[in-house]
Specification:
This protein has 401 residues and is α+β, with helices and mostly antiparallel strands. The chain has twelve helices and eight strands.
């Protein structure tokens, strides 16, 4: 059982404050040079951050989702690429905890608890939702994995790959080590935002697979039911967006405080004393606070539903409502963060567009994150739920990563 208290949350923030500060110091240089944060991810692994949600008995921190997402927002403030790099690892941790308590579950929870992480190989760039990665036996009876995935978020930094494939009987989750023969990871993600997430191509060339690397079987076309994972993955994006809003406020204040001239005001005028500039910063602060509170409200609902599941009282209706509440929060958070990352430039005029500041990265990163799960589709799902009582039909092939 995970209990969130102000004291535990404060202790967590203090524990990681110095690491997050160091990460933030190098964010502009990494963005400018497109330098992958390999060292920063290593430090997060060694610090125990990647295992915070793993139960204590398996080597993790056992923290609540509310505390975890609160901390994730701060990491997103320091460097928004990093939460996304770790998103699949975090989601796999949640999937394992919802899964039956068997040897496979305990094995992989202990792997994550030891500081190793997982990346994704689930999505494809095709004209329709599909699963073209195939697991078949060769002439000697050895299972071999072949195919290609894109949007392989975090795989460049991971120790293991959670791959989605099929064997002509069903779809299945296959766990492959990144150094297995035949695994090829390519840094070809070309999005204008979240440029360092390693969300490019993963190829499998006759990769040998043992039977115990096949975790679960499922049908790609079937809706997911009675799981928080859809909500969890979306809340992960919301937490990163909330972190970006905090970073926009931080950078607006840092930019404004030392300045001695306000646009359009003759002579010397200290911008921080200008009511119009104060109003912009006040709006930025309000947007950052609001996005954080909405995100944490969803996290607390997830904690409550997890407790109900463990007590045997969770219902399908509870899970359906959690998805809808998450989508409702998404509608507001995305708009507020995009507003904040645009409004940021009103504190400094043309000088705020300097490449040396890279303030544009906040909008580019927010816009890229917001594009991962189309708001219009989710808005329609909300309306259909309230008008017709229809649950959101999230399928294994949609929105997984």
């Amino acid at each position: 059982m995970s209990i969130s208290t102000p004291a535990s949350a404060q202790a967590l923030h203090q524990r990681f404050a110095d690491l997050f500060a160091r990460i933030a110091e190098g964010a502009i240089a990494r963005e400018s040079e497109r330098r992958l944060p390999i060292e920063e991810v290593r430090q997060l692994k060694e610090s125990g951050f990647t295992a915070l949600r793993v139960p204590v008995e398996h080597g993790g921190g056992g923290v609540s989702l509310a505390d975890y997402f609160s901390l994730l927002i701060r990491l997103g403030e320091a460097e928004s690429n990093l939460p996304q790099i770790l998103r699949v690892n975090a989601g796999f941790t949640e999937l394992l905890q919802e899964r039956r308590d068997d040897a496979d579950t305990r094995r992989w929870l202990k792997v994550i608890g030891s500081g190793q992480t997982f990346g994704a190989a689930a999505s494809e760039r095709t004209g329709s939702t599909s699963n073209s990665v195939v697991l078949e036996k060769d002439a000697n009876g050895q299972l071999r994995l072949n195919g290609e995935k894109y949007y392989s978020t975090g795989t460049l930094y991971a120790d293991w790959i959670l791959a989605r494939g099929h064997d002509h009987e069903s779809d299945l989750n296959v766990i492959v080590h990144v150094n297995a023969p035949g695994v090829e990871r390519i840094d070809d993600w070309d999005g204008f935002g979240q440029r360092l997430t390693g969300s490019g191509t993963t190829r499998f060339h006759n990769v040998p697979v043992q039977a115990d690397q096949i975790l679960d079987r499922y049908q790609l076309s079937q809706p997911r039911r009675n799981t928080i994972i859809t909500s969890f993955y979306q809340t992960f994006h919301l937490a990163t967006l909330a972190g970006i809003a905090r970073a926009a406020l931080r950078d607006a204040v840092a930019f404004t405080r030392p300045r001695s001239r306000t646009f359009g005001v003759p002579g010397q005028s200290v911008p921080r004393e200008n009511p119009l500039v104060q109003r912009v910063v006040g709006r930025l602060s309000s947007l950052a606070w609001s996005t954080e509170q909405l995100t944490l409200a969803i996290a607390r609902e997830q904690d409550a539903l997890n407790e109900a599941r463990r007590a045997g009282s969770a219902t399908t209706e509870d899970y359906n409502l959690l998805d809808i509440r998450t989508f409702e929060a998404q509608q507001i958070v995305i708009g507020q963060v995009l507003e904040a990352t645009t409004l940021l430039f009103e504190v400094g005029g043309a000088s705020a567009t300097s490449q040396a500041l890279r303030l544009d990265r906040h909008w580019r990163n927010a816009r890229t994150l917001a594009s991962h799960n189309p708001v219009t589709q989710r808005e329609a799902a909300i309306g259909n739920f309230h008008l017709n009582g229809e649950p959101h039909n999230e399928r294994f092939g949609q929105g997984y990563v």
